[in-house]
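Late entry, written up from scratch paper. The run itself happened at the end of the previous shift, but nothing got recorded in the book at the time, so transcribing now.
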Amino acid sequence: MKKTIKTLLTASVVALGLANALHAQASVVVGGTRVIYRGGDAEQTVKLTNEGKLPALTQIWLDKGDPKASPSSIEVPFTITPPLARIDPGKGQTLRILYSGEPLPQDKESVFWLNILEVPPKVSGEGGDANHLQLALRTRIKMFFRPEGLKGKSEDAPAQVTWQVVEANGRSALEARNPTPFNVTFSSLEVTGGGKTVRSADGGMVKPGETQTFPLSGEVSQGAGGKVQYRAINDWGGDIAGETALNAAQGK
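Output as recorded:
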């Protein structure tokens, strides 16, 4: 069993690409798009549901941000039970995530990734010996460890991010600086300046105290009246829409 799962995991990156091409869909659905583990909590729970027509075997683990890391090589200060689970069609499984107490920063959030690998059942009966493609589908969502006593509120953090237009890799980009202790994830970004509006095709996350650049679809003037329209993702996976002024360009 362990050897089978390890083999499937090694191929999961390729399988995920094939799944996208073939419009494959995981049977096991996660109850939420992110997990918030508050520092004062004894544990956090996550609900899995099998919406498919066949039993599903799942392997569950956390990583630190490297999607290619093997579960056996990852060390995180959390335990997940059960790490393996069979979920029958129409049934659910509750995961328990427990913090081991090992030191983590207390002045800002830390981010981990929850992985749920769905191993396809073995084909039996007629056609069971024929050549066929089986995909190991992986769902991967963020888990934020939020220490007690952080200043401010997570829902207010997107409005505190500051922006300016910069040049990155020979093209215009939007630079975000996050002064808050919370991770802020943007699902869409749009810049208006000089009567022109351009967008960033890729959203992304800006970690506490860090800077992140988002390539823009074209050139835009960073003059008076320039604005950034954004959509950020809140703790429940919903959108926070906002607008803020561009900062003046800084010399580099």
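The chain is about 10% helix and 45% strand.
(Scratch paper discarded after transcription.)
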